[in-house]
Automatic annotation (TrEMBL):
Organism: Acetobacter persici
Protein name (database record): Transposase
Annotated GO biological process: DNA integration; DNA transposition
PROSITE patterns hit by this protein: HTH_MU, INTEGRASE
Gene name in the database record: tnpA_1
Domain Integrase catalytic residues, every copy: 248-478
Gene3D superfamilies, per the entry: 6.10.250.2550, Homeodomain-like (1.10.10.60), Ribonuclease H-like superfamily/Ribonuclease H (3.30.420.10), Transposase, Mu, C-terminal (2.30.30.130), Winged helix-like DNA-binding domain superfamily/Winged helix DNA-binding domain (1.10.10.10)
HTH Mu-type domain segment(s): 6-80
Taxonomic classification: Bacteria, Pseudomonadati, Pseudomonadota, Alphaproteobacteria, Acetobacterales
Amino acid sequence: MLNSVQWFSAAELASLGLPGLPSTKQGITHRIQMENWCDPENEGKCWRRRNGRGGGFEFTPYVLPTLAQAALVARIQQPVEAEGEAEQRERHELWRAFDKLPEHKKARARKAHRVLMMVEEWVSAKHQQKKLAIAHIAKAEDVGKTTIYRWYRNVRGLNKCDWLPALADNLNGNRKKYANCDEAALEAFKSLWLRPEKPTFEKCFRDLTKMAEEQGWVIPSINTLKRRVKDLPQMVVTMARAGKDAAKQMIPAQERDRTALHALQAVNADGHKWDIFVLWPDGSVARPIMAAWQDLYSNMILSWRIDRSENTDLIQLAFGDMVEKWGIPEHAYLDNGRAFASKRLTGGSKTRFRFKVKENEVNGVMTILGVQTHWTTPYSGQSKPIERSFRDMEENIAKDVRFSGAYVGNNPLAKPENYGSKAIPLNEFLKVISEGIKEHNNRTGRNTLVCGGKKSFFQAFSESMAIHAPRKATSAQRHLWLKAAENVTTNKKDGSIRFMKNRYFADFLHEHLGQPVVVRYDPQDLHADLHVYDAKGSFLGNAPIIERTGFTDTEAATTTARSKRQILKARKQILDAERTMTPQQLADMMPAIPDDEEDSVESKVVRPFRPAPITHGNAAVAIDPDYQEEDDDEEVSTVVKLRQFMREQH
């Protein structure tokens, strides 16, 4: 009920068996007539017409004798609390239904409420009977008295604070009435309509007509079915006919306040394929890929790199440019793609879900630098603010007049008339992109909460950087994001390194002649120094490039000769610093030779005896007696005997 007063019919009062009242319906009806319970002055207060089947009247306990009222109150006293909860619930439903009404029906309800309030005030101020007040107000407001009485019947038993929605409750008109339609036919029509092929109403109705003839269904006109379908929730229709992604667009996107951040506290990155045909140095034509890093606080583009495809080297080098120029961010929001989730970038991060995380996994560059990574929803541009910057660049950079003829459009159906008539050389493309991104960062009047419609992204970033100093990378940390190349061997004569058709050299390479080393380098800047490590990973030093010179360039020859002299001079100084003693000083430190007589030393070398040939051709050579020495007589005799024995054997 809407209040604490309950209404009872004559039969209900008889069944209660209250003291001082008859126990039959006929007895209660006789009491009503005798005591004039249905006095028109008390309509809506003490009695009202019953709306249920059979009609009749209903009465409040105020028409009953005092003893009967006391007994009735005793019976209904316990459920008062529950009745109050039900009253609040019904009041809520009444006002909720009123809010859903169209404005013209609300206006009619307000007019009825105003008229009733005028009647109540007239009765209270003039102390006149209500029927006289109704007659006066009806004439003044040009409203029928019967209408005012009907309005009073609508609000009987209600508190005045709830009269307004009660007066509008019966202004809804008749409920919608539809022509007869079999339930199965309606379900079939909705299933035909709610298909991703997006059939028209006419097509669905023709198919339903064929089904109805086969199944014996009763179907209404196509206009009635259209009204039935329009009662379906619009988001349900969109999901069925346009897909889940289209329905997702009907949900308001989350707006995140980034004013509480500061510069380089959080960054996000993504890859973008430019809608430009570029002529690469090898003669091929293709659309380039850009990897860019953006500051979330200011929306400023911090760094970018260009390559043929989205790969780990591209993203890592762009990350290195950001750290090198601005500092190390605290948080990074990345797309969960294979290139961004590479172990070289995020290895060891506990939030990396693209590849399996192992306990002994080598930490990636971002993990080593202490950057906390967060993965955004794949294929969701709303999750990465940098997507909005890419759209701005496509409009203001890709459509630059210098790219005319090379612009391909943002989809196959949006190709310009001059599609494919030109390809921009890579160097020219990079110059225009660099200029465009610089303008993108410095354009004032940015309509963001941080910029306030006045500042540029760069101004907002610079102001925050002046207050919140970021972490800077050390010289050793700068090597982490460079590409590594193994199996590089130094020259075994001079120690120089020949790499990527260039030569590099530094003095420390003399200590590693012909040895394998590891070099870290920037593949897009091969004229920068190589960072050289030994095979165990220990850093050795930086090796600058040896520039090629012209064959007849005498100035370069002079410079090279001067450099050689300086190197030799430096090594001579090092040699003099290391060799502090002369040979004479070393000789003086040797023990002195004694002056004792020289002992006779028996010869340890025995000269063997080699006699002259005893034959010359087929003739024997005679022995020269003059050649013989006295001590050789015995030996000669033995030899002569040996020769004679050999002849006898032949």
